[in-house]
Amino acid sequence: MEISEKAKKLLIVVGMAGCGKSVVVDYFKQKNWQVIYFGGVTLNEVKKRNLPVNQSNEKMVREELRKIHGMEAYAKLEFPNIKKALSQGPTIIDGLYSWSEYKFLKKHINIPIILLAIYTPKKLRYERLAKRKFRGLNYKQAELRDFAEIENLEKGGPIAIADQTIVNDGSIEKLNSELDKFLIDFNSDTD
User: Where are the domains of the chain?
Assistant: First the structure.
């Protein structure tokens, strides 16, 4: 795979729903990073099937895609886009869910992969999810999603072995400050 001089590492953001992954990705997008959003595969498939975009349909599609393509489904389906993004510069993946996806990328990408876990206490995540205007979840729905993602999608593995964890329990400004520090380290590591 041809990789731009600017893309010597691949950054993957992991975390449970409501932890702030989208805010983190927006931070990097503002710094002109390429963004791959695994969740877009789900949303596109839900829309393609003319189903309402909701928690139930998204869960069904996520699990069906994995039955068809294996637990590494999203990494496989997005791999051409990942290669293209890396050829254009620094790249971040939003929404890696499974351990199998991580292993697939480790096997097929010959540059260091850095996992950045975003951690937010459950109570705060659930409050954030309840306030979402699009795809909001009440407490019970959020809990069911957590369980499904941990039990059915292998989500815990990538979070558990993250190279770095940032606690997101405050303001966006505080999170951005933590990301500024992370980016300095990310750019200075030569691996």
Answer: 10-186
Q: Would you state the structure tokens that stand for residue 20, as one six-digit string?
A: 């702030």
Confirm if 76 and 70 have CB atoms less than 8 A apart.
yes
How far apart (Å, rounded) are the C-alpha atoms in residues 9 and 104?
16
Domain 10-186 classification at class level: alpha beta
Place of tokens 């400050």: 177
pLDDT in tens, 131-151: 988 778 999 999 998 998 898
> 133: which strand partners?
none
- CB proximity list for 110: less than 8 A, separation 6 or greater: 1
Place of tokens 């909701």: 54
- The mean pLDDT value for 163-174 works out to 96
Average pLDDT estimate for 97-112:
93
Distance of alpha carbon 127 from alpha carbon 100, whole angstroms: 30
Average pLDDT over residues 112-130: 96
- Alpha carbon distances (Å) from 165 to 48, 120, 158: 35, 10, 11
Q: Which long-range contacts (CB under 8 A, 24 or more apart) does 68-73 make?
A: 70/100, 71/98, 71/99, 71/100, 71/101, 71/153, 71/154, 72/98, 72/100, 72/101, 72/103, 72/104, 73/101
